[in-house]
């Protein structure tokens, strides 16, 4: 039986450096990630957090930061009691030059059996990464209704 | 154990009608699907096929045609390496989400560990990324992709 994991691949007409910037600059992330700031100094072992409209939704620790190729952090969702009780999961971004494009592979893994956040992140990442691609290619992020994020605690608003 | 399936979801700034046209019009698919033209009369049960440079690459029959919400067809890759594999199924679901459209591609009924499964897992993200770029920016992703890309794009 395979362990549950979520993999998403996209091809973006940009450079690895610009994509790295888009993943790690909080000014950038706020534009395509529903006003969510990714906050860290991006050094291995440093803390990482996602802050949406001033509310910390997720925290973790930087595992790898090999600019502009590979970024990895642990990911612990805070907005529900059940999620807080789970062990942190792991997020990995791989950036590979692909002709004039960059192939972006997101892997979210190490979920507990029956994890309550797997559904949410499976809905959230495609929306976030679609908006990121739009922003880098057309200059404008997408306006997707927040429930598509699948973040428990935000869906009812 | 469930059979393997591949699901890929994207959000595109367009209308369901434009996206529907992009999925069902041969002149349009040729632009983003790395040269593949689709052709069918789109009646339920009718045959459809993809051709590339005049050569048939994929064929099947239409299972669902509900514009602009749901399109489904069977999928037989005509390359010699996959001819022995079972006929699989592709379904496109289009859902308006505010000013964007959520597109979900589901490819199922695949052979466990088969070549088709490997090929389409690599191919769909590329085709859908190119489709999104074309609808949003007016140009598809460049086709001068090399190596593995050339193989993947031929197969999905």
Instruction: Report helical residue fraction of chain B.
Output: 25-40%
Strand segment tally of chain A: 7
Would you identify the regions of chain B where 5 or more consecutive residues have pLDDT less than 50? 146-156
Biggest sheet: strand arrangement of chain B = 1-7-6-5-4-3-2
Oligomerization state of this entry?
heterodimer
The backbone outline of chain A, from C-alpha atoms, is globular
The best one-word shape of chain B is: globular
Descriptive overview:
The complex is a heterodimer of chains A (157) and B (156). With 157 residues, chain A is α+β, with helices and mostly antiparallel strands. Chain A has four helices and seven strands, in the order βααββββαββα. Helices cover 27% and strands 36% of the residues of chain A. In chain A, strands 1-7-6-5-4-3-2 form a seven-stranded antiparallel β-sheet. In chain A, a hairpin with a 3-residue loop joins β4 and β5. Chain A is globular. Chain A starts with 5 loop residues before the first strand and ends in a 19-residue tail after the last helix. The mean pLDDT of chain A is 93. In chain B, 30% of the residues lie in helices and 37% in strands. In chain B, β6 (88-97) and β7 form a beta hairpin. Residues 146-156 of chain B have low confidence and may be disordered. Classes of the chains: A alpha+beta (157), B alpha+beta (156). Chains A and B meet through β1 and α4 of A and β1 and α3 of B.
Write the layout of secondary structure elements.
The complex is a heterodimer of chains A (157) and B (156).
Chain A: E1 6-12, H1 16-24, H2 26-32, E2 36-39, E3 47-52, E4 55-66, E5 70-77, H3 81-85, E6 89-98, E7 101-109, H4 118-138
Antiparallel strand pairs in A: 1-7, 2-3, 3-4, 4-5, 5-6, 6-7
Chain B: E1 6-12, H1 16-24, H2 26-32, E2 36-40, E3 47-52, E4 55-66, E5 70-77, E6 88-97, E7 100-108, H3 115-137, H4 148-155
């Amino acid at each position: 039986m395979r362990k549950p994991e979520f993999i998403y691949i996209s091809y973006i007409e940009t450079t690895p450096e610009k994509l790295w910037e888009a993943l790690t600059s909080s000014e950038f992330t706020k534009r395509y990630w529903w006003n969510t700031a990714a906050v860290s100094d991006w050094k291995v072992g440093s803390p990482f957090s996602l802050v949406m409209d001033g509310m910390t939704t997720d925290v973790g620790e930087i595992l790898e930061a090999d600019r502009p190729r590979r970024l990895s952090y642990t990911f612990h969702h805070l907005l529900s009691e059940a999620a807080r009780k789970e062990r942190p999961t792991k997020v990995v971004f791989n950036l590979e030059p692909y002709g004039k494009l960059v192939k972006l592979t997101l892997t979210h893994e190490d979920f507990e059996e029956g994890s309550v956040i797997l559904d949410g992140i499976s809905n959230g990442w495609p929306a976030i990464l679609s908006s990121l691609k739009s922003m880098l290619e057309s200059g404008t992020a997408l306006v997707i209704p927040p429930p598509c994020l699948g973040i428990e605690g935000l869906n009812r608003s | 154990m469930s059979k393997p399936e591949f699901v890929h979801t994207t959000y595109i700034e367009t209308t369901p009608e434009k996206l529907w046209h992009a999925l069902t019009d041969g002149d349009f698919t040729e632009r983003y699907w790395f040269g593949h033209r689709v052709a069918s009369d789109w009646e339920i049960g009718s045959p459809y096929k993809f051709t590339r440079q005049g050569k048939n690459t994929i064929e099947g029959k239409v299972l669902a045609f509900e514009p602009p919400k749901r399109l489904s067809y069977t999928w037989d890759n005509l390359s010699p390496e996959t001819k022995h594999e079972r006929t699989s199924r592709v379904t496109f679901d289009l859902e308006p989400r505010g000013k964007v459209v959520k597109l979900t591609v589901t490819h199922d009924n695949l052979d466990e560990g088969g070549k088709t499964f490997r090929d389409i897992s690599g191919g769909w993200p590329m085709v859908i990324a190119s489709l999104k770029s074309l609808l949003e920016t007016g140009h598809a992703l460049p086709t001068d992709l090399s190596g593995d890309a050339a193989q993947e794009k031929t197969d999905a």
